[in-house]
Design a protein that fits this description.
With 167 residues, this protein is mainly beta. The chain has strands at 2-12, 18-35, 38-52, 56-61, 71-75, 80-86, 89-95, 98-108, 110-116, 124-126, 132-134, 136-137, 139-142, 145-148, 151-157, 160-163.
């Protein structure tokens, strides 16, 4: 599935102030048995990338050890609701004039939900300003927080939009 996070707002110990990032990437999920009214989803590949003048290339991937809960899909007869949990690792190429890489892992993983007609969500495309259209817009229940040693990165906005990859 394609993943776009357009307008992610980040604060960090790397540089002062709020920074706005636009991530693009993909997520591969494996469906597993759950229960009578739900299925489990396991993310087996995840990669988002953004670029910023202060940080260079910023990459978000699966952590070396993923201890986040499995995501779930619930069908209520007319719609499917996904609760997505995503632990990740974020790497900054640099921070201002300091060379990196700076690597942090989630202290609190993303928790987001979306209700859609089908899963995977309908196909997604990109508007001329880079924002996603189509797919499913997820609402963040818990925003991701990343830490490493004395560094901390918080997102105050992280609106993921997920869709099928165009065929």
């Amino acid at each position: 599935m394609s993943v776009n996070v357009f307008g992610a707002v980040m604060t960090s110990g790397l540089e002062p102030g709020e920074q706005t990032l636009n991530f693009t990437g993909s997520r591969v999920a494996q469906v597993a048995n759950g229960g009578a009214d739900f299925a489990r989803l396991r993310t087996v590949d995840f990669r988002l990338e953004a670029s910023h003048p202060l940080f260079g290339k910023i990459t978000m991937t699966l952590p070396d050890i993923d201890d986040s809960p499995e995501s779930t899909l619930r069908h209520n007869g007319s719609a499917v609701t996904e609760t997505w949990y995503q632990a990740s690792k974020i790497t900054f190429e640099r921070a201002g004039d300091r060379s990196g890489p700076f690597v942090l892992v989630t202290e609190k993983p993303l928790q987001a939900t979306a209700t859609m007609e089908t899963w995977p969500p309908r196909p997604q495309s990109i508007n001329s300003d880079g924002s996603p259209t189509g797919g499913a817009l997820y609402s963040a229940v818990q925003l991701p927080t990343f830490t490493a040693d004395d560094l901390r990165v918080d997102f105050t906005a992280f609106p993921p939009n997920v869709g099928q990859l165009p065929s």
